[in-house]
Amino acid sequence: MLVPVGKGIELDVDVTRFNKEVMDHIVKTGLRNLIMDSHASATQKADPTGYIAKSRELAERKLASLYSGIVRTQAVGGPKAPTDPIAMVILRLARKAVQKERAKELAAASKGDRLALLNKFATEYAEAHDAQLRPRAIQIVRLENDEPEAPPAKAATKKKAA
User: Fold this and answer.
1) pTM assigned to the model
2) Same domain, 81 and 55
């Protein structure tokens, strides 16, 4: 598993080498951080009487989304979008495809979970169909940036011997 640790450093971590105690600690720490981040916006200053109940609600909602396979949910400001323009277009194309293919599943989701579910499905689709979507995304990025398309390759012509 490639783990970004900051400052442009990524470490390839073999999680199978961790013993049970270390793995339990990693999971507990990671879950705690994810769930703590999910309820950080519920503050005493914003809601002096209901902030603890709101914190619990947000934390429980985050845990429920994790149980359902959704890692990043849309919040105020939302998750960071990819900064690579081609990846952004691939995700945009994937969203369109998913909205058509999985319309019933998306409609069945609660209003609050619909966007997170769409993002989950789109990310999965983009990863699975990257090879098919990438050439189209490259062309779209070129067109959006007013870059001329690459000229078509000229057919090689044989000169007749005189």
Assistant:
1) 0.44
2) no
